[in-house]
Amino acid sequence: MKIPILILAAGASKRMQGRDKLVMDIDGKPLIHHVAKQAISTGHPVFIALSGAFPERKTALAGLDYQPVPVDHPEKGMSVSLLSGLAEISPCPPALLVSLADMPDITTQDYLTLIDAFLSDPDAPILRCATHHGQAGNPVILPRWAYELTDLFQGDQGARALFHSFPDRVKLVPLSNNHAKTDLDTPQDWESWHASKRHQR
């Protein structure tokens, strides 16, 4: 069974002081390229929500096997990208894996761990990745019953209203270290992340 992966990559990097975080360097490649490649390596279909306002992001994805999802009004929030992806993906899959484009530590194995958790659970809850300490983060898997509740996708909250509306139907899937909570939103985030990588070497 194939579970489509939707990467949300249409936002404006508002906290990066004029720089586009998604085309900044991660191990010699733009961040968006790095994140997309990890998803594509799962063998599951990958869709990437993109805004025409940032053509350099599409350039950074050249040569990768993915389906672009055009987002006309990304300024209206993450939910617009999510709904655009749902409209693009057909026929309706049993679940949708939603990932963020600014999380450099999410690996191919992390995606597969999440997908395997869905495939092995007949109750099909909402699955959220979490740190090894149990702090909820991203990516997430939305089973069909959840992603069809489109009225709950509003503004920049993405699927958070779903989590609050159905707390008893949300299950955490722990990943290694802090993978599920590491995102690069600010210059300080980038500096801290690179410093941690240098320390690990």
Content of β-strand: 15-25%
Structural domain tally: 1
User: Which residue ranges are poorly predicted, with pLDDT under 50 across at least 5 consecutive positions?
Assistant: none
Secondary structure tally, helices? 7
SSE topology string: EEEHEHEHEHEEHHEH
Calculate Rg over CA atoms. Answer: 16 Å
Task: Please identify which CATH superfamily we are dealing with.
Answer: Spore Coat Polysaccharide Biosynthesis Protein SpsA, Chain A
The total of beta strands comes to 9
Structural class: alpha/beta
Give the CATH architecture.
Alpha-Beta Complex
CATH topology: Spore Coat Polysaccharide Biosynthesis Protein SpsA, Chain A
Q: Briefly, what CATH class?
A: Alpha Beta
What would you note in describing this structure?
- With 201 residues, this protein is an alpha/beta fold.
- The protein has one domain (5-200): Spore Coat Polysaccharide Biosynthesis Protein SpsA, Chain A, CATH 3.90.550.10.
- It has seven helices and nine strands, in the order E-E-E-H-E-H-E-H-E-H-E-E-H-H-E-H.
- The protein has helices spanning 31-40, 55-60, 78-88, 108-119, 144-147, 160-165, 187-200; strands spanning 5-8, 25-26, 29-30, 46-50, 67-70, 95-100, 126-130, 136-143, 170-174.
- The strands form two sheets. Strands 5-4-1-6-8-7-9 form a seven-stranded mixed beta sheet, with helices on both faces.
- A hairpin with a 2-residue loop joins strand 2 and strand 3 (29-30).
- The longest helix has 14 residues, at 187-200.
- The protein is globular.
- The termini are far apart.
